[in-house]
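User: I'm curious whether this sequence folds into something compact or stays loose and floppy. Could you predict its structure so I can see for myself?
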Amino acid sequence: MSTRALRIVLLLGVSVFGVSCKSTDRGPAEATGVRWEARTGLSGTGQALAVLDDGRLVASTDAGLSSSSDGGLSWSPLDASGLPRGRVTVMTATPSELVAYVWGQGLYGSDDGGSNWSALGDLPLHPIVVTATGTLAPMVPFVLKADPEDPTHLVAAGPGGYLVTDDGGLNWRNVDINGPTGKLNILFTGAAVRGDTVYAAAQLPEGLLPPFFSAILEGGVHVSEDRGETWEVLGEVFPSPAPSGITVGPDDLAYVGTQDTGVYRLNELGQWESIGGPSDVVAIETYESGIAVGSGSRGPWRWELESKTWSRGAVDGAVAALAADHALMTDGGFLALDPAPGVAAGSPEPAGGTVYLAFSMHTNLYHSFRGNSDGEDGFGKDIRIIRNTLDWLDTLPEVHADWDIENFFSIDGGEGYGYGWLKTHAPDIIERIRARREAGQDGIRLMSWNNGLVSWQTFEEFEQSVERAKASYTNAFGSFDRGVQPQENTFSPDHVGWYRQLGIEWITLFNSMTPFTGFPLDHRLQGREGYNPVTLRDGDDTMVMVPVYHHGDVVDHGSLAGWARQLSDQFEGDTLLVIHFDADAESWLNFNLEIEAAAELDFVRFTTIQGYLDSHQPVGSIELPGDLADGVGDGFQSWAEKQVNQDVSTKVAQARHLTDWARSLAPGDTGVNDLVG
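Assistant: Here's the prediction. I'll summarize afterward.
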């Protein structure tokens, strides 16, 4: 069977899903003793942070490595000789060595505080992952931890395995962490080590995996007392499906952060108890008198052990990394816990916003990479998964769907042009979507009429494409919304005016942080803009743009329910979270589990994109500087490298020349224009 859904989880992020999120006590609003204090920030996007044995700090941003000897008051760049170019995404420090992972390059070690580096051993994926995905690439660690009692003992964890080394990182071994059911953990988000005791936290995105994988994998929190040789479940069943990190506190108890319900502590009775904190924990560390916690949206927090109180820094935004009592923000900001007496900033109450959820299926039965048969190696897979999606949609009457469907290959057969594989092989799908549309249940917006590269089209070609798509939708579904999702996010600024001229009022583009994406490399939406319509401008022309996200982003946020809670906690008023992905993705097969859990949250509503736009105005305005394809300016490379596209583009260019010649030879001849049209 296809392993695409598992690859999504392994390569785009680690997450889980399962049960509904219960409300959690956020803790008292005041704390005393220490507070987060802003220090000197760094240039670039924050990545990783480590504290050396002598107290020096080493921070990584996409601008390189920097060090500080005064607690972050000043920074100096490091030459980092021997370290390959690339982002250092995780770091840890032993008493004798600084260890760092360079994205796509591997592990490296430095024994002089980061000035000189040498390569360490590879991190092999777990054998079951190699078998399931066919990849031999090393594991990408999300967590790298050093044993404070043994500088040669480190652990690394991430999507694809949990590894242990006893020689400072030269050689790594995979460990099997099996729960009481015999299922395997491979999607690790947290690790901690102290002597022979090793801890692991793993998630399971059950709603994003086909049944085959969810039947053999599991998540949870486990502990080993013999350096990873044997494992057992830590405490009772962990109460959250989305653990995101683990640390051992100054009281020698385990603390686990989650991406849906804050932080849990394992008490002396072996029971997990909620201690509150932010709902989107992305990092958790121990400091001298408590626990430091990094939020994915509301900065650094701390839990004071003696007073059992929470406080947070006076900054919002995502924490990139924590190291003891220091925090590096993704925007390069840097904070430290100030030991001076005083009242710390209180922990705020959740904003209590309402979250509207919409689900969008990108339907295109043409697959240049897979073939065009009616079996599983072609569009037969699309038909199977779309039918399954419609089946579980029928069991959730309060849930809506949005569809954007390619026309030439998928719908238009029998109209004088096109293949129309849905019409010829699965007319029931068209009939069911039309019935849902007529009942006011689903939205339907345009896609690229013939899977074409709309960024390369002249206005005349663009107009023909849009008008043919309109006619196709009207014939198949009776009506359509005045929106569009261009194939592979192909977009040119001129399209703002072109779409509006042709009656299309809004567009959806990915605002994802993982491939595929739409425009984040060109423009970062701020705050509520990421979850509401914004005005897209090109000169005097405007249209509405709706940011959308995909299954990889659900993985990154822990679960759909967890993401919804994070938005409700962060923003007052209404937000719109649109999950948009290929309709043939196997990650839709069990997605109803994600939706059912989110439906239990009292602040969640379900909508179509058009339904939300009917009652919500844009909250911001952006202007994109250039063309997009697959989210980046060089995204056209994947189109240009295919021979079939080179052949088609050559024929299109020849046709354009012939058209120009015909019009030059017969100016004013309406027959020429009729023939071209």
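Summary: The CA atoms of residues 388 and 589 lie 7 Å apart. The chain has three domains: 4-18+28-344, 354-640, 643-676.
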